[in-house]
Amino acid sequence: MKLPQVNFPTTIVIFGVTGDLGRKKLIPALFDLYAKEYLPTTFRIVGFARKEYSHEVFRAFVRDVIRERGHHHPDEMINDFLENVFYQQGLFDDIHTYTVLSEFLGQLDLSVGQCTNKLFYLAVPPASYQTIFQNLAQSGLTIPCSDAVGWTRVLVEKPFGKDLQTAQELDMLLGELFQEKQIFRIDHYLAKETVQNILTFRFSNNIFDPVWNREWIEKVEIKLLENIDVQTRGAFYDDVGALRDVGQNHILQMLALIAMEHPENLQADHIRAGRAKVFQSLRLADDDIEKGVVRGQYEGYASVEGVRPDSTTETYFKLKTFIENDRWRGVPFYLESGKALGERKVEIVVHFKKIDPCFCPQPHGLHKHSNMVTFSIQPEEKITVRFWAKRPGITSEIIPRDLSFDYAGDADGKESLPDAYEKVLFDCIAGDQTLFTSTDEVRASWEFITPILERWDATKLEVYTKGSAGPEREL
Ligand code: BG6
Questions:
Q1: I need a surface site. Which of 13, 133, 256, 352 has the fewest CB within 10 A?
Q2: What is the position in ligand 1's atom list of the atom closest to the CA of 420?
């Protein structure tokens, strides 16, 4: 079913469409939305890149991408989709290109018979953001047709800056060129199904909401562990490192959802403000950075193409943090991520305090029976509650058992889970900014991360073996 705010003629322009993100995520997501009838009835997709493609060659490229992704839709459906796909060749830094693009979009609007909404997706390296923002604004492409029709929106990928200062500069530029309601800053983790479910789980269940605080919770672990290494992204990654790549954004966003206060209502502004507030209260465990941080690099990283041979860029980090507010004071939050580890696992584990005395055979204080709530985000998507029960039989031994909600085994989850990028595109067209980061969140997250980066060199870089669990030092 199409939401009325989605079903208005819309043109989606993708800058850098032939790159990795375009091929792996955006084209498949747009096609899936189309196949599920979630795109507006009238839509146009315009790929924009440097390659000398014609519309036909680009359509063949899109067809290959759809086929490679193993879609089993009839050819007829793919052909119908491709009729709405176009290509514009150009250079990001050439203002003339934008005039040509503007004329072309004008022709498409004529073919539709009205001014369409325009969505500009920047699937390009961050170094091109500033140029594209400026040229988009200068060419008038982002000026809506009127207050009532033809909105224009800009979708931008992370990384959003390199530190507090660069993020603020970029944000100031955006603020000068566009209104906040036009800017959609993507953190695709916010659009993952189980991540979205965190707030529902916390605030729709009276059995968890009252115990979600320092009185009952012992610690929280947030892990984004990857078994892949940096692959072909050496040159990009070496300038960024794990903390900027996934810490400042994906991991902090998961933390915010676990820790934020009940929003006053479900409006995007309130939820975004709630997340930003968590970042504003974050502190590292100790002034002595070594006590709050483990920083690692996998063996062999320095010989990856594009990486400096003497690189000290981290491919792993673990932080011990605290949230300075009444709900969380004193509860450690461990944030961990790394590349080339032994397993691929993204999860959040909330450990509850042990109940003492416990109704179990062990003496007071000596048992290990605590409850846990685990949000599994990858590879499986599920929520599990660990509880303790008496083992059937004549002894009073107690055993752990899990109650879980698993998307794969759930009747409603059987319709394949949408990819996060489907949700990102759908929400941007619908104008819902809940799952996009606000300017306040960007600033507050960098305010926490930048001082750590500034003292990074004062921490020991620990080398770990590929395929291991990362550096051994505990926090
Ligand atoms: C990206 C990072 O933002 O997130 C990558 O740049 C990382 O380095 C990726 O691999 C992880 O996302 P996902 O959805 O594959 O878990």
A1: 352
A2: 14
Q: 387 C-alpha to center of ligand 1: Å? A: 32
The verdict on the CB of residue 419 being under 6 Å from ligand 1 is no
Report whether residue 453 contacts ligand 1, using a CB cutoff of 6 Å: no
What is the signed CA dihedral for 241, 435, 335, 374, rounded to 10 degrees? Answer: -140
In sequence order, the 6+-apart residues with CB closer than 8 A to the CB of 472 are 462, 464
Residues 129-171: tens digit of each pLDDT: 999 999 999 999 988 888 788 899 999 988 888 999 999 999 9
CA-224 nearest atom, ligand 1: 16
For ligand 1, the distance from its centroid to the CA atom of residue 170, given in whole angstroms, is 22
Q: 362 pLDDT band (50/70/90 cuts)?
A: confident
Torsion of CA 240, 244, 247, 250, to 10 degrees: -100
Of the candidates 384, 381, 389, the one whose C-alpha atom is nearest the C-alpha of residue 372 is 384
DSSP β-bridge partners for residue 118: 11, 152
The reply to whether ligand 1 has any atom less than 6 angstroms from the CB of 245 is yes
Cα 287 to middle of ligand 1, angstroms: 30
> Which residues, in sequence order, are CB contacts of 435 under 8 Å at separation 6+?
187, 190, 191, 196, 423, 424, 427
The alpha carbon of 269 is separated from its chain's Cα centroid by a whole number of angstroms, namely: 18
pLDDT tens digits along 255-293: 999 999 999 888 999 999 999 999 999 999 877 888 899
Q: Which residues are catalytic?
A: 250
Q: Do 405 and 374 contact (CB within 8 A), yes or no? A: no
**Ligand 1: nearest atom to the Cα of 240:** 6
Taking alpha carbons only, the member of 245, 173, 226 closest to residue 379 is: 226
